[in-house]
Design a protein that fits this description.
This protein has helices at about 20-30, 40-50, 95-105, 125-135; strands at about 5-10, 10-15, 55-60, 60-70, 80-85, 115-120, 140-145, 160-165. By secondary structure, it is α+β, with helices and mostly antiparallel strands.
């Protein structure tokens, strides 16, 4: 979010995460099933190494939303969205969509495509990404990607690759 580190909308403030936000982001994700919980160390690294392509939402100094993302290492015009977490108290208020819109506008203006993975049973995420694609008038493509066998002995549902784009270049 190089253009503006802090952006306010109503009572919610949007900004790049800072290293000291890692523990609160870990707790938010922990309370956000069906998201896979990563280690606290992982969230600290996201807040440091990848802060320009991540966004968090705060309300009254509480972390109520977080998107972790990064520039795809082999597709320079693609933003890979790793996780979208929204506090239960903020669900149904379009916070995830607002965060993604703001992230693309300020932190990833180079992105022509969004990629992410979603398990087939995660209907709410599938609806969210379809709505985002519709709003962008962009194509959403879905294909098998991380099959169950790749997770080894750990039971994990397949993660399908979703690719959305091209995105509108008119980002006012």
């Amino acid at each position: 979010m190089s253009k503006a580190e802090h952006m306010r909308e109503g009572t919610v403030t949007f900004r790049m995460p800072r290293l000291q936000d890692g523990a609160a982001i870990y707790e938010l994700v922990k309370k956000s099933p069906p998201l896979d919980l990563n280690s606290p160390y992982c969230y600290l690294l996201l807040c440091d190494h990848f802060k320009e392509t991540c966004i968090m939402a705060e309300q009254q100094s509480e972390v109520v939303g977080f998107i972790s993302a990064y520039r795809h290492p082999r597709r320079d015009n693609t933003l890979f969205v790793w996780q979208v977490a929204v506090a239960e108290s903020m669900r149904g208020q379009r916070l995830a969509g607002t965060m993604l819109d703001r992230l693309i506008a300020a932190g990833a203006p180079w992105a022509l495509f969004i990629e992410t993975t979603v398990s087939p049973s995660n209907r709410s995420s599938l609806r969210f990404y379809q709505a985002f694609a519709d709003k962008q008038a962009a194509l959403l493509q879905q294909q098998s990607y991380l099959t169950e066998d790749l997770f080894g002995d750990r039971a994990h549902e397949e993660e399908q690759l979703i690719r959305i784009g091209p995105l509108s270049t008119d980002r006012k």
